């Protein structure tokens, strides 16, 4: 999916919502445990209930890898079930020496070898360019680089000064030498608020994947105040706040209700910004 195609989906659905599929056996409704693959059934019902309200789905691969072979099969089948006009994100946070990163890229982008071909994968930049560039060799695929995250330990490294820049600013500046805004996005946590203004000074045209709205306390309006650009430029992720909104047999309806609330907020923001 190209940047323009993603923006067209945002305009069509009047939404820039990403639903995080962080699905866990100990959190899904208990009545689903009767199914041969409870997590896959949960994911399918969540997707069916929200696919007209969101423009992206983001399975966090840790929630699948922890179940071994069965988990990988569930991840593959979940990817296959995501409608192909919806942006798919493998939230894997990979990054290693070049030949290893090349295998990671093949894992998530080469359907012939792995049975999966996500539109994008999250990548950690700590090891530098040769750990990231293998992911960029795949046509029409995206790297979503960790920049300024929403976790409590982000300040341990990301805010440290490096040659006059904070480390996350160095990441933003240096990584733009590796790829354009047509192939690279950045992870910027919603709980960073006004820091989006600093991010936009350095990356005005890039899409930003924004976790932390909802359960982690990020404020949607504040994020949009500082982070919105001429093509929206934001994918706002909500995981727990949507997928675990209900625990009964109507869990998918409850998930839809929460997704719809966010979509309506986003629609108003897009209208006010004259983007739809």
Structural description of this entry:
It is a single chain. This protein has one domain (3-273): Aldolase class I (TIM Barrel), CATH 3.20.20.70. The model has no long low-confidence stretch (mean pLDDT 95). The two termini are 20 Å apart. With 276 residues, it is of the alpha/beta class. Strand 4 (120-123), helix 7 (129-132) and strand 5 (142-148) form a beta-alpha-beta unit. Helices cover 41% and strands 16% of the residues.
Task: Write a compact overview of the structure shown.
The protein is of the alpha/beta class. The protein is built from twelve helices and ten strands. The strands form two sheets. An eight-stranded parallel beta barrel has the order 1-2-3-4-5-8-9-10, surrounded by four helices. A two-stranded antiparallel ribbon has the order 6-7.
SSE layout and pairing:
Elements: H1 3-13, E1 17-20, H2 38-50, E2 56-58, H3 62-65, H4 68-81, E3 87-94, H5 98-109, H6 111-114, E4 120-123, H7 129-132, E5 142-148, E6 161-162, E7 165-166, H8 167-175, E8 184-188, H9 195-202, E9 208-210, H10 220-227, E10 234-238, H11 240-243, H12 251-272
Parallel strand pairs: 1-2, 1-10, 2-3, 3-4, 4-5, 5-8, 8-9, 9-10
Antiparallel strand pairs: 6-7
